[in-house]
Amino acid sequence: MPDISSTAPSPAAIDPQRLQAMMEAVSAFGGGADGSMTRLSLSEEDRKARDWLGAWFKDNGFTQKVDAIGNQFGLLDLAGHNAPTVMVGSHIDSQPNGGRFDGALGVVAACEAVRAVAEGLKREGASSACNFAIVNWTNEEGARFQPSLLGSSVFTGAAALDWALERRDGAGVSVGEALRSIGYAGDDKVPVPAALIELHIEGAPSLENSKKRIGAFSRFWGATKYRLAFIGRQAHTGPTPMAERQDALLAAGFVITGLKRLAGDYGLDLHTSVGRLEVFPNSPNTVPGEAVLFIELRSGSPEILREAEEKLKAMIAEAADFAKVGSEVRSVDYRAAGAMDAGLVRLAGEVSARRGEDMPLLDTIGGHDAVALAAVCPAVVLAVPSVGGVIHHPTEFTKPEDQAFGVQIVADMLHELATGGAAVIKADKTP
């Protein structure tokens, strides 16, 4: 494996082989032979991965805490109770038939980076200005329970705990029931950190195309997410006259194609999708009586999002009229666009430059837990290249040398904060 450093060795040098061993270990929980990963939030596979992480915490001197929404923390006290805490991590839940690096790399990166910093400080006989916390957020993906970023949103107070615990999956199982079933319904209180750093795969081709080893997400797009139901009348596909049908799926198709056209009206500034469609009774010989669409609008512009939502509403009404069905908006989730912390972005660029790499600034169109944390503390997401820009697919891959470089940048940032940079970070706040 190539040397990740182009300068003098870091006092917090990571171990790339140790990093890869951890990635291989966590990939066993829900991983398929084709490279796929299905580790839905609060599933049995998720429990096994959480247990593995908890064992790592215990073996490496971290104190595990689990809060009421199941967020899993490993705390390392290096500076005493009154010192600020810097948090690092991501999530280990995945999409169904997704990839192995989205989220999981960020958690493993946190483990290796914090361990490298602690080992380096011990070798130097140096004290730390901050404590560290590694985090595995609950239900980042939003695949089993909606909305996404659920655990981090409860942590910051953006979502109410009772409301979140009542979110239900397609089988009717609530978040609270699932937490209890896997043994992760905790009651620990963990304060808001002084700063949060998250490493993630880019999930887009810009870094690879520009031959850059790392980037910083300095801006995040907003999102508007609708759960929309069209309600028609179930009937036989044979004898029921075409003119008398009230086809809920026909209305859904109208909206799906309309959303594609809507995105085209805004060039590169709007992304639209229907990622999930539930049809009832879902029989080949039955006119669908109900169709539920999971709709997303994403943009970096609040004005475009507002305008696109108004156009979506008009589209829904037109589709219902066309198909002679009713419509019902069952939920709407909003996530505002915003910026990552300029100071952390600057620090990331500085430590990257010392290793001979300039760090491009990127937008993140997808959501990350750091987006939720950005409302309550300085937060940043660093990105490492995705081969082919692939994400949420079994072929999702980031080269080991790129993984290692990204983790080393995180470790370098943490070392800077531990050896004085944390003095400018305010003490912890309780949510």
Automatic annotation (TrEMBL):
Q: What are the alphabetically sorted keywords of the record?
A: Hydrolase, Metal-binding, Zinc
Q: Cofactor: bound how, per the entry note?
A: Binds 2 Zn(2+) ions per subunit.
Query: In Gene Ontology terms, what is one molecular function of this protein?
Result: hydrolase activity, acting on carbon-nitrogen (but not peptide) bonds, in linear amidines
**Is Amino-acid biosynthesis there in the keyword field?**
no
Q: Which cofactor does it need?
A: Zn(2+)
Q: Which SUPFAM superfamilies match?
A: Bacterial exopeptidase dimerisation domain (SSF55031), Zn-dependent exopeptidases (SSF53187)
Q: Which residues bind Zn(2+) 1?
A: H91, D102, H200
Where is Zn(2+) 2 bound in this sequence?
D102, E141, H392
In terms of Pfam families, this protein maps to: Peptidase_M20
Determine the domain of life of the protein's source. Answer: Bacteria
Instruction: Give the family this protein belongs to, as stated in its UniProt record.
Output: Belongs to the peptidase M20 family.
- Protein name, as recorded: Zn-dependent hydrolase
Upper taxonomic lineage = Bacteria, Pseudomonadati, Pseudomonadota, Alphaproteobacteria, Hyphomicrobiales
